[in-house]
Each structure stands twice: as structure tokens, then as C-alpha cells.
Write a structure and sequence with these properties.
299 residues; alpha+beta; two-stranded antiparallel ribbon; 10 helices; globular
Length: 299
């Protein structure tokens, strides 16, 4: 009976997923080994009511930007999760040099994916995007996520007030945690928190506490389609592979890192981040060959 319910739930999720064109072939598109996911966190408020915007302290900014951009590589060398800073100064095809998150504003997921492919030399195989409301819904569907927070954090802009120590974060608190930049290293700490939380969330999704609880399974089946937008060729079994690969990171396996940073500067009045080109080339060159990233190339 449980197996039948699981299959029925998977079929339902697969039929309800929102799919968009995120990958496109073009002359000179890179080829690489292993499997690569582009994971994007959108700050769109489109799925939030005015009351939810106030409750989650998101504000009501119009439009859609990508505040979270991560590249997940899986293969024979294991799992590697790399944060790509949104303020990275990169060449955006047809648009010149600009911040990475501007690629989404200019041309949506397709241009974002092409920009990442050309910057890294990796072919993106799968795409997943989640918004504010969907993130909260998934976290609450699994009963919250356990995190160990080293120091207390308070950030009114993100609606966050959390004490130090190991604790279970509900959806609203978790959203504030992964959005907050109110720490010494600002965006760098935020990206680390995002990678850690993603791994912990996948661990919770695939834990017995979730999988043997019919109510949580039902809540998750309901929450996932509303939360995720995926590439046109992606299916629920691809998402399962993503979850399994990411869960490995929560147990200390695999590698989580930020692309190597060369420095910060100002271009056109905007603060931008520059990659360490030599170390980034070594990192993505190893991943393209499905080889472990050299320690010297880690961010």
C-alpha cells in the first residue's frame, strides 16, 4: 500500500510541475562529463499575498531577480555544490559584461543558463527554481529543518531573530536565515548558509520521519508542484536524483564551496565581484572532466 501511495504521489507531482524552457542548444555550447544542475532561488513575490509579504518580511518589490544561484555537479567524483555570487561580473551573451543575476532579468532562465555555461565551461543538464512562498511551503510540509547555528542572528530586514544552537527552523524562520546578510561576511556567509540549508532540507525530505508519515508525504506532494519550476525535460525522478545527491552533503560527504573570488570593485556605480580566473578555471576544468576539484581551487 505504501509503495502504491508513493508511486501515485510521484506521478501527481510529475504531472503538476511547472516546466519552462531553460536549456537551449547553440553554436559552441560546452560539453562536459557528469551531471550538472543549475539551482536558482527567485525573489519573486508573485506567489505571495499581501498578508504573506508582511508576515515573511519580503517587501513588495516588483519583478523577479535571482538572489541565489548554485551549481550542483554529480558524477563519479561525488557531489560538488558551488555557489555563484549574484554580483559576479561576467560576460552575458548579447548584453556585455554585467552582474550574473542581470542575465535572468535580461533573458530569463535561458540566458541565465547560457551565461553560466559560458562562464564555467560546463553543460547544464537540469534546471530548478524556487520562490519565496514555495520555499516556506516545502520546509513546513516536512515539519521544519534541523540546523545548528553557531551565533545568534537578528535581521529585521529578513524578519529573522534566531538564537545560537541546534534547533528546528520552520519555513518562515528558514527563509529569513537563507536571505539574511546581517553577518560579518554578508553575502559570503549567506551563500554558505544557503548551501548548508539545502543539504539539511534534502536530508529531512528523505528521512524516515518524512517518508513513513502519510500526512507529511501528502503535504510534500501538495507543496512541491507549487514550489518548483523546472526545465522542460525535467521530471520527478530527476528531482529525486537531485535530492539524493544533495543529501550526501549533509553528512559531510562531497564538497560545498563558493567559486574562487579574486576581489571586489565598482563598475558603472555598482559594486561587483570578480572571480579568481585561474582558480575558477581549475575548479570548473576538474568538474568538466568529472574529477575532484583540487583543494587549491576551492573558494
Amino acid at each position: 500500500m505504501f509503495a502504491l501511495l508513493a508511486v501515485a504521489g510521484a506521478v501527481y507531482v510529475d504531472t503538476q510541475l511547472t516546466r519552462i524552457t531553460a536549456l537551449a542548444d547553440y553554436t559552441g555550447r560546452p560539453d562536459s562529463s557528469g551531471t550538472n544542475w543549475l539551482i536558482v532561488g527567485s525573489d519573486s513575490r508573485a506567489d505571495l499575498t499581501e498578508q504573506q509579504e508582511q508576515q515573511l518580511t519580503t517587501g513588495n518589490a516588483a519583478g523577479q531577480r535571482t538572489d541565489t544561484i548554485m551549481l550542483l555537479h554529480t558524477g563519479s567524483s561525488g557531489t560538488t555544490l558551488v555557489s555563484l555570487p549574484r554580483d559576479s561580473l561576467l560576460s552575458i551573451p548579447g548584453k556585455g559584461r554585467n552582474k550574473l543575476n542581470a542575465a535572468y532579468a535580461f533573458g530569463g532562465p535561458t540566458l541565465m543558463t547560457k551565461t553560466v555555461e559560458q562562464a564555467t565551461g560546463l553543460r547544464i543538464d537540469h534546471y530548478a527554481e524556487i520562490g519565496f512562498g514555495g520555499f516556506v511551503g516545502v520546509v513546513d510540509a516536512v515539519g521544519g529543518v534541523d540546523m545548528c547555528i553557531p551565533t545568534a542572528m537578528k535581521d529585521p530586514k529578513a524578519g529573522l531573530a534566531v538564537s545560537a544552537g541546534c534547533q528546528r527552523l520552520d519555513g518562515q524562520t528558514a527563509l529569513g536565515y537563507v536571505r539574511s546578510r546581517a553577518t560579518a561576511r554578508a553575502d559570503l556567509d549567506r551563500m554558505q548558509h544557503q548551501r548548508e540549508f539545502l543539504a539539511a532540507l534534502m536530508h529531512r525530505v528523505l528521512s524516515p520521519a518524512t517518508l513513513v508519515d502519510p500526512l507529511r508525504i501528502a503535504a510534500l506532494v501538495h507543496a512541491l508542484p507549487a514550489a518548483l519550476t523546472v526545465g522542460s525535460g525535467d521530471h520527478v525522478w530527476n528531482l529525486l536524483s537531485l535530492a539524493l545527491a544533495t543529501r550526501e552533503l549533509s553528512g559531510g560527504g562531497g564538497v560545498t564551496t563558493t567559486v574562487p573570488i579574486g576581489g571586489f570593485s565598482t563598475v558603472g556605480g555598482q559594486a561587483v565581484l570578480r572571480w579568481d580566473s585561474a582558480r575558477a578555471k581549475a575548479m570548473f576544468g576538474a568538474l568538466a572532466q568529472d574529477e575532484p576539484v583540487p583543494h587549491s581551487a576551492l573558494g
